[in-house]
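Progress narrative, Year 2. Work on Thiamine-phosphate synthase from Paenibacillus etheri advanced from sequence curation to structure prediction during this period.
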Amino acid sequence: MKQIDSDQLRDLLKVYFIMGSANCRIAPAKVLKEAVAGGITMFQFREKGTGALTAQVRFNLGRRLQKICRANGVPFIVNDDIDLAIALDADGIHVGQDDTPALAIRQLLGEDKIVGVSAHSLAEAQQAIADGADYLGIGPIYPTSSKEDARAVRGTSIIKEIRNSGITIPLVGIGGITVHNAAPVLAAGADGISVISAIAGAEDITLAARGFVHEVNSNGS
Ligand SMILES: Cc1ncc(COP(=O)(O)OP(=O)(O)O)c(N)n1
Ligand SMILES: Cc1nc(C(=O)O)sc1CCOP(=O)(O)O
Ligand SMILES: [Mg+2]
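Result:
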C-alpha cells in the first residue's frame, strides 16, 4: 500500500486494532474478521506475550491475517519485527523506543511503507519525526494490562503537549482505551485510537469495533 499522504493516514488511524494470538479467546482469524466487520481502519499484527507463536507458525498466522486485511482494504502493519515485515511485504511496521531505531527502519524499508513509532514524551516525538516516522503511537494514555513493560501512564496531557508544540504528524493514543474514555483522547488532538483488549476481549467483537468507529466519527476532527 502507501503512497498515502498524511490526511489519508489520519483516516486510516481512526480505529487502529492491534492483536496477536495471546490476546484472543477465539481463533485470531475469526477475531480479525469480526473486527473488520465492525469497521476497523488499520491492523497491527503484534505476536508477543506468553505463548506467542514463533518461526513458521508465526509467519503463517501473519500471512493469514494479512490476507483478511487485503481482502478488506485494511492496511496490515507488523509490530517490532523488520524481518517479518519484509518477508510478508507488509504495508508497514510499528517500532518502539527499545526496538530497531526508526531511522534504520526507514532506510531498510524505503519511502513506500508506513513507519509508526511509539513516543512517550515530546522529545521522543520530535526525534521520531526527524527519523522519518509517518505516524506516532502515544501512550500509555490510561492504565493497561495488555503490555507488561508499559511506561508510566501519561494521560491525555501528553497528546496536548505534543500538539501544542506545533507537531501536526498523524498520531494515535494507546493504552487502556475503551469506548467510554476515547473522547478525551480525540479532544486532546489524536487522529485516532489504538486498541487491543477492548476489541479483542469483547463479548461481541464486531459491536465493540463499531462502537469505536461511531465514537471517533462523532468526536474526531
Ligand atoms: C500504535 C502503537 N503505539 C504504540 C505501540 C507500542 O510499541 P512498543 O513501545 O514498541 O511496545 P510493543 O507493542 O512492541 O510491546 C504499538 N505497538 N502500537
Ligand atoms: C501495545 C501497547 N503500547 C502501549 C504504549 O503505551 O506504548 S500501551 C499498549 C497496550 C494497549 O492495549 P490495551 O488497549 O488493551 O490497553
Ligand atoms: Mg515494540
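The chain has ten helices and eight strands. Residues 16, 18, 44, 46, 79-80, 94-96, 99, 116, 118, 137, 139, 147, 172, 174, 194 surround LCLJCK34 (ligand 1) (CB under 6 Å).
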